[in-house]
Amino acid sequence: MGTHDLFNRFIAVYMMSNRKHGTIYIGVTSQLLARVGQHKEGPIPGFTQKYGLKRLVWYEPRETMAHAIRRENALKRYRLEWKINLIEGDNPHWEDLYPALTGDTGVYGFPGQARE
Predict the structure, then answer these.
(1) Which of 53, 56, 79, 86 is most buried, by the most CB atoms less than 10 A from its CB?
(2) CA dihedral 103, 14, 20, 91 (to 10 degrees)
């Protein structure tokens, strides 16, 4: 998939959190960047807004929505320890991965900058 398609179509299972070892939300979408943007802006009432989950800490691209939904359901059955291990396998500091996906490194792009 070309980079020009990222905002339009990026099927993925993803996890949002508010901090390292904080509350975790597992979701699935066909438009990862747009959906994470909605979580960050907080206009839609729900779990992520209630708990301030604005940090994309893990995602896994999938070929189809059916595959993504199956993976989401499996992840929701994982023990918390397994979810943490999955996140920390790729993202040990629970950094927000959204800026790197959008190309906007902002504050997170500079070593030594304070994190949320």
Answers:
(1) 56
(2) -60
